[in-house]
């Protein structure tokens, strides 16, 4: 004979459609609350990064380290443009 466990399974929530719906609603709220600030920051990073490119270009891209830095900043700028393109619409 086995003894019943003294611990209950109340910590495990129901996995029905209602629980899934609540989880989706929480996820949507989280995405909405993060989307605005992320677009704002990405938009302004995309505006500011070209001013960082100018000194690198003025110095010249002969040094491999400067070239890699320039290309990395260019990639970050493209990503920021993509993420921030919907800001202010």
What's a concise summary of this model?
The chain is mostly helical and 89 residues long. Helices cover 72% and strands 0% of the residues.
Number of strands: 0
Order of helices and strands: HH
Low-confidence segments: none
Return the average pLDDT rounded to an integer: 84
Q: Distance between termini? A: 68 Å
Query: What sort of overall outline do the alpha carbons produce when their principal axes are compared?
Result: elongated
Strand content: under 5%
**Helix content class:** over 70%
Estimated radius of gyration: 25 Å
Structural class: mainly alpha
Number of helices: 2
Main sheet specs: none
How does this structure look, described?
The protein has a domain at 35-89. It has helices at 17-59, 64-84. It contains 2 helices and no strands. By secondary structure, it is an all-alpha fold. The termini are far apart. Helix 1 (17-59) packs across helix 2. The model has no long low-confidence stretch (mean pLDDT 84). Keywords: Membrane, Transmembrane, Transmembrane helix. The chain crosses the membrane at residues 38-58, 64-83. InterPro entries: DUF8028. Residues 1-12 have a biased composition (Polar residues). It holds the Pfam family DUF8028.
């Amino acid at each position: 004979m086995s003894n019943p466990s003294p611990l209950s399974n109340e910590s495990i929530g129901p996995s029905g459609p209602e629980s899934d719906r609540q989880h989706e609603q929480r996820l949507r709220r989280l995405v909405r609350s993060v989307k605005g600030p992320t677009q704002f920051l990405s938009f302004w990073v995309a505006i500011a990064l070209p001013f960082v490119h100018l000194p690198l270009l003025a110095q010249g891209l002969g040094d491999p380290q400067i070239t890699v830095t320039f290309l990395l900043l260019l990639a970050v700028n493209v990503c920021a443009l993509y993420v921030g393109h919907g800001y202010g619409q």
